[in-house]
Design goal:
about 80 residues; alpha+beta; 3-stranded antiparallel sheet; 3 helices; about 40% helix; globular
Length: about 80
């Protein structure tokens, strides 16, 4: 099942079907990352954790590498009711 979820997330990102929260933008800035690094991390990453105890829906943690192919990046997100990640 985790492979199917990861593919769904990767497809949403590839199609631009995602939103980035202000909190995420702040975290990226603190870590010296940009949206391209996050997209690359999801494209190259592995789903390492699924949390299902939140009433807002399952939360997924993906770890992959940034555009430089060296920097490890962790991304946390969830699907909204609209299907946007």
């Amino acid at each position: 099942m985790s492979t199917r979820i990861l593919q769904r997330i990767q497809t949403a990102i590839a199609n631009g079907e995602y939103d980035v929260t202000i909190h995420a933008v702040e975290e990226m800035a603190e870590d010296g990352l940009d949206i391209f690094d996050v997209e690359a991390a999801i494209a190259s990453g592995n789903l390492i954790k699924t949390e299902t105890d939140d009433p807002r829906g399952a939360r997924y943690t993906i770890v992959g590498t940034a555009v430089d192919a060296r920097t490890r990046v962790g991304v946390v997100g969830r699907f909204q009711e609209t299907g946007i990640f």
